[in-house]
Write a structure and sequence with these properties.
An eight-stranded antiparallel beta sheet has the order 3-4-2-5-6-7-1-8. The protein has helices at 15-26, 45-54, 86-92, 107-113, 174-183, and strands spanning 5-12, 31-42, 60-62, 95-102, 119-126, 143-148, 162-168, 193-194. It is built from five helices and eight strands; from the N terminus they run E-H-E-H-E-H-E-H-E-E-E-H-E. It is an alpha+beta fold and 196 residues long. It has one domain.
């Protein structure tokens, strides 16, 4: 058990660049899961409308837990984002989306629909064996993550920057992270972090 170790290998104010470099790193994975995990915080009605157009089938929910005042039970956001009026959406903000989708089908639409909220794409897979560096791939932990408007793999605070992470096994693999960063013309730009 445990979490992967995430190494930031690119930090930029250019979301398109972060996404493009993340996809280049995904191309190096020896095995790639069939699904990607898409997550986004939606803070405006315009954000919700754009994302709903791109991902109408996605599950949308309240970003912050809400309870029924009389029963104390947690509430779910049940409105249809495609047909809800602006007042309904405004009252529900902020919303989030967090779901697995088939890899390769929706990532471009997702990125094009992003607003200013924190968001991420997670690609899980396995890095190839690297006998020269004594590195071994681990499918439970390996992968690539791009966090939009965030500096950390485990989101915490909003930033203007976008960060690309490579994930390795739970013990960490700095030599592999350095090689992967060099592949995209970068370097490891921060400390190892707790990953997924």
């Amino acid at each position: 058990m445990g979490n992967s170790k995430a190494y930031p290998v690119l930090r930029t104010a250019d979301a398109a660049m972060a996404y493009a470099q993340a996809k280049r790193l995904v191309g190096l994975l020896e095995q790639i899961a069939d699904e990607v995990w898409l997550m986004a915080e939606l803070h405006t009605v315009a954000d919700v409308r754009r994302m709903a157009k791109a991902l109408p089938q996605a599950p949308y929910d309240y970003l912050n837990a809400r309870k029924d005042p009389s029963t104390g039970e947690y509430l779910s956001f049940d409105a249809d984002v495609m047909t809800a009026d602006d007042a309904t959406l405004e009252a529900a903000l902020p919303l989030d989306l967090s779901e697995e989708f088939p890899r390769g089908e929706l990532e471009d639409l997702f990125v094009a629909a992003l607003g200013a909220g924190t968001a991420s794409i997670d690609w899980h897979g396995r890095w190839p064996e690297d006998d020269e560096a004594d590195c071994h791939g681990t499918p439970r932990y390996d992968g690539v993550q791009v966090v939009f408007h965030g500096n950390h793999a485990q989101w915490d605070t909003w930033t203007e920057h976008h960060t690309v992470f490579v994930h390795t096994d739970k013990w960490g693999d700095l030599p592999r992270a350095r090689k992967l960063a060099a592949y995209i013309g970068s370097e490891v730009v921060g400390e190892q972090e707790v990953g997924w």
